[in-house]
Design brief:
The chain is mostly helical and 88 residues long. It has a domain of 57 residues: Orthogonal Bundle (DNA polymerase, domain 1), CATH 1.10.150.280. It is 51% helix and 5% strand. A two-stranded parallel sheet has the order 1-2. The longest helix has 17 residues. The chain is globular, with a radius of gyration of 15 Å.
């Protein structure tokens, strides 16, 4: 029984990981693929904002990107990961 549970979790893990994106390191194409209601131009705006202002400190900070509102942030909160790009 425990082995079956472990196998199930192992199979679910990679599928879940594919549905998240590190907005501090991902390119625009990846952001576009993973985030809902974010097309190519908004995805590029996210990358441009990150390049200009440094890594995002919170998902809510995405609302400061032109074309991204709080509704879009809320729809994507479970998809957003903040790892890469932090200076320490």
């Amino acid at each position: 029984m425990l082995a079956a549970l472990a196998l199930s979790l192992a199979l679910i893990g990679p599928a879940f990981a594919a549905d998240t994106v590190d907005i501090n390191s991902a390119d625009a194409a990846t952001i576009n693929e993973v985030l809902v209601n974010v097309g190519p131009s908004k995805a590029q705006a996210i990358v441009d904002y990150r390049d200009e202002h440094g890594p995002f400190k919170s998902a809510d900070q995405l609302a400061q990107v032109k074309g991204i509102g709080l509704k879009t942030v809320e729809k994507n909160r479970d998809r957003i990961v903040l790892k890469g790009g932090k200076g320490g």
